[in-house]
Amino acid sequence: MVPHDLPPVSAPVITIDGIIENDATAWLREVDARSGLRRTKTALTRADSLRSFLNYVLAQNTSIRGATNAHIIGYIRTRTTGPKRVSGNTIASDRSTIRGFYEWLRDERGIPLPITLDELRTPNGPVLSMREGRGIPKASAAQTPLEPPQIDELLAAATTRNNGQNYTAARDAAFISLGLACGARADTLAHLLTYEIPESPRSTLRNPSPIEGDLIEMRLPAAVSKTNREVVLPAIRRHLDRVRRFINPETGARRHQLDRWTPPENAIRVATGPTAKFRGIVDTDGNRRSFNTMTAEDRRRLVTETNEPAMIFLTVHRGRPLSERSAEEIVSTVSAEAEHRAEQAGTVFPHVTTHDLRGTYATHLAALFYFGVPTSAGRDLDGKPHRVNIQSAVKMASTGLGHINARTTQLYIQQVGLMAGQYSINAFLGREQR
Question: Which family does it belong to (predicted)?
Answer without folding.
Answer: Belongs to the 'phage' integrase family.
